[in-house]
Amino acid sequence: MTQVFFYHGASDRIAAACALIGGAWAKRRPLIIYAPEKQVADSVDRSLWTANQLSFIPHCRADSPLAAETSILIADRLDAPAQQERLMNLSREQPPGYQRFASLVEVVGQDEEDRLAARERVHRYKEAGCDVRYFDLSQR
Q: So what's the pLDDT on residue 81?
């Protein structure tokens, strides 16, 4: 069963996601970032290039020729995931086929629409029997 980690209350959702992505990279853990909205995917991609001048987080789009050699992928679809260990959801919708992954990371901002959509996803994950854990980012 998929283990779900909700990081909520982020004042800057993209920055919080990039910090978590950096943590996965530091441990050399593969991660697929589900970002079906082009603006979100572009923001994450740009932030990973510029967030920390002292380190680089190798990443690419899932449809890139380099995807097979890259452990951090930004995907707008999940029909053929490169790995099934970790998925990060940056959509307001429940990611399709999330059950294939051992763990799912949700990053939730402070805006009301984001919070309401996240509550609905929590409800669905719990109904499906997922173990859901919460981490409050508003205190950071």
A: 72
